[in-house]
Predict the structure.
Amino acid sequence: MKSLAQKQVIDVENGEKLGILGKADLIIDPDSGVIKSLIIMNQGFIGFGSSKKEMTIDWSQIETIGEETILLKKR
C-alpha cells in the first residue's frame, strides 16, 4: 500500500478533490482473491486538534491510478 500513499483522490464526475491518501487498506474476497474495496484513512489537522476521516471506495469506482492521482466515480 505504500505506493498509494500521498496520491490525490479526485472525483472525475465533478472534479472534486476528495483528499490525499495517507494510510490505505484493501478488502479482498478470501475465496476469489479479488480486491473488493479500498479503505482510506486520511489524517489532518483542524484548528488545534486532529481529525481522522475514513473513506471506503468500492474497487469498481476507481477509474485510474496514476503517478500522483487516483481518479474515481463516487456514484
Remarks:
- The two ends are 24 Å apart (CA to CA).
- The beta strands are 8-11, 17-20, 23-28, 35-46, 49-58, 62-65, 69-72.
- Confidence is low (pLDDT under 50) at residues 45-49.
- The CA atoms of residues 7 and 62 lie 13 Å apart.
